[in-house]
Design brief:
It contains 2 helices and 3 strands. The model has no long low-confidence stretch (mean pLDDT 94).
Length: 82
């Protein structure tokens, strides 16, 4: 089950479970659309994988299986992928 992490690892922007601005890689690293598009160019800086739109969990399922509250952040932010 996806963790649905609450923030962008680069800029720490809040990304609630219903957000369509959240992107993830296959390891669930989580980034906002702005950082993905403008800095990362759609590639995860951690694993080199593709960043895709994070699925949204239906409200009824979210009540039973809540999103993660653990914030993951790169202390130095992110740098552009080459």
């Amino acid at each position: 089950m996806l963790q649905l992490r609450p923030n962008c690892e680069c800029c720490d922007r809040d990304l609630p479970p219903e957000s369509d601005a959240a992107l993830i890689c296959s390891f669930e690293c989580t980034f906002c659309r702005d950082c993905s598009d403008k800095v990362l160019h759609g590639i995860c800086p951690n694993c080199g994988g593709e960043l895709v739109t994070r699925p949204r969990r239906p409200a009824a399922a979210l009540a039973k299986f809540p999103a993660s509250t653990e914030r993951v952040r790169k202390p130095a932010g992110c740098t552009a992928n080459r």
